[in-house]
Amino acid sequence: MKKYLAIAVLLIATAGTAMANSPTGIWQLHRSKTNGIDHLNVQFGACGNAVCARIIEAIGVNGRPVASYPHVGKTIIRNMVHQGGGKYAGGTIWDPRRDKTFALEMQVRGGRIRAEACANAVLCRSFRWSRIR
User: Fold this and answer.
1) Where is the signal peptide (predicted)?
2) Distance CA 67, CA 80 (A)
């Protein structure tokens, strides 16, 4: 009986760690305040065997949703593959302001994502997300 209890405790602990390193859910993308937009809220979820995210809401510098934002509903992150330990790579991120796509790597740790998007080996930009739910 003790053996089964130990296995159950181990499985529960492992599941909690896996969820803490999963991007599934809604995240706030921190960005510079441009064109009246303070930040975007994006929803991460499965897309085949990978992870993708779509824009679900744009929040203005006044703290209210911007109903006229034209990119709500569009996919911003595609084909991120879990590498283990909360690291995701192999996918892309779309920059709606420039209408360009960049290679993306990201690290998920609890309620934070640290990411780096690169146009090439030299030109990269780091950014972060905070989990909303």
Assistant:
1) 1-20
2) 28
- What residue has token string 């609890």? 110
Per-residue confidence band for 131, with pLDDT thresholds at 50, 70 and 90: very high
pLDDT tens-digit series, residues 30-85: 776 667 889 999 999 999 999 999 999 999 989 999 999 999 999 999 999 999 99
Any idea of the CA torsion for 79, 82, 87, 89, to the nearest 10 degrees? -30
Architecture of domain 2-25+41-55+72-131: Beta Barrel (2.40)
Query: Which residues are CB-contacts of 67 (< 8 A; sequence separation ≥ 6)?
Result: none
The HSE-up count of residue 3 (CA atoms within 13 Å, CB side) is 0
Q: Cα(131)–Cα(133) distance, rounded to whole angstroms?
A: 6
Structure tokens at 116: 């780096």
Count of other CB atoms within 10 angstroms of residue 55: 21
Distance CA 92, CA 101 (A): 6
The token pair that represents 115 in the structure block: 């990411």
